[in-house]
Inverse folding.
């Protein structure tokens, strides 16, 4: 199941959602309560997946092995993609009442793209400073009857110090950097749907077959901060500049998710009047990222034109996360 398909599924957590588990309810209020309970479980699971993935994506990329000389400047742009491990076992063991999550073929990675632009300036005593701006521009699009609205803004500051300057006495260069990153965004999914059968609802002495015409909404918002340190060792070889390094980032902030279903419940049974009732059911969850991303870095920068460099970078982090980026930068001095 693809990412957008999952969101569509969790949006339509209704009284008769398939794959559903057979159930009958003593009254409508009990049915709504169970839908809300399942929505809360699903919101919590979705929230846990985004909680660390959003912060990790915001700090990926922008690895520059070369140090700027005093009053040197550079500008660059890059495309970044990260993937975070999804808790498939946790999803299959949610314990939902109405939705049989064990029958949903869950994807195992949460992809997260972004585009970053940066600018740096060389400072005295072997320091340089930079700013990063980017993310995902606000975008709304449809996939069938499902509407997606996505945005993510990233802002970062970097301060670096050249500890070892590559030369005759030092075959390698060593740069140590400190960074701060803020990310804020959301993904909002609206799915209209109709579900019929699968369960029964009891009203008074009568038992009805329900159908639900509604719009399901899933929304996740993130507002994260990260403070980190990065060390890069590089070796220039003609037009090539390979490097390896390591980084550690501590993440904080808030992430919240919700699932809401708004529509009409229609109860039918041969020989009985049809009953219709407007219903709203849903649930939400929130959490604060409070973790360390520890990552190994490796990459290659190629001088393709005077002052113009092409960079390719890969990252491997703890907890099954990884990322990569490719970009161009123009450096003077």
């Amino acid at each position: 199941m693809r990412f957008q398909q999952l969101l569509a599924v969790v949006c339509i957590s209704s009284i008769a959602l398939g794959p559903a588990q057979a159930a009958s309810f003593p009254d409508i209020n009990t049915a709504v309560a169970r839908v809300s309970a399942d929505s809360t479980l699903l919101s919590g699971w979705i929230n846990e997946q985004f909680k660390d993935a959003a912060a990790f994506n915001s700090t990926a990329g922008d690895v520059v092995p070369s140090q700027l000389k005093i009053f040197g400047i550079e500008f660059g742009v890059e495309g970044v993609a990260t993937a975070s491990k999804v808790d498939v076992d946790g999803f299959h063991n949610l314990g939902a009442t109405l939705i049989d999550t064990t029958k949903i073929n869950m994807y195992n990675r949460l992809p997260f793209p972004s585009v970053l632009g940066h600018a740096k300036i060389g400072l005295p005593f072997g320091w340089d400073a930079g700013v990063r701006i980017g993310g995902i521009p606000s975008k709304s699009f449809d996939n069938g009857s499902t509407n997606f609205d996505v945005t993510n803004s990233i802002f970062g500051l970097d301060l670096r110090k050249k500890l070892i300057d590559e030369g005759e006495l030092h075959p390698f260069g060593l740069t140590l950097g400190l960074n701060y990153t803020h990310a804020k965004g959301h993904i909002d999914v609206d799915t209209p749907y109709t579900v019929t059968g699968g369960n029964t609802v009891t009203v008074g002495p009568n038992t009805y077959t329900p159908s639900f015409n509604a719009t399901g909404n899933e929304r996740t918002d993130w507002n994260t901060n990260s403070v980190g340190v990065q060390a890069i060792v590089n070796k220039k070889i003609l037009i090539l500049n390979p490097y390896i390094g390591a980084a550690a980032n501590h993440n904080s902030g808030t992430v919240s998710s919700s699932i809401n279903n708004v529509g009409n419940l229609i109860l039918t049974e041969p020989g009985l009047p049809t009953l219709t009732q407007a219903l709203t059911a849903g649930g939400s969850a929130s959490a604060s990222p409070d973790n360390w991303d520890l990552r190994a870095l490796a990459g290659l920068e190629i001088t393709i034109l005077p002052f113009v460099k092409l960079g390719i970078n890969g990252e491997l982090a703890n907890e099954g996360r990884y990322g990569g980026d490719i970009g161009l930068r123009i450096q003077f001095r």
Observations:
- The chain has one domain: 3-332.
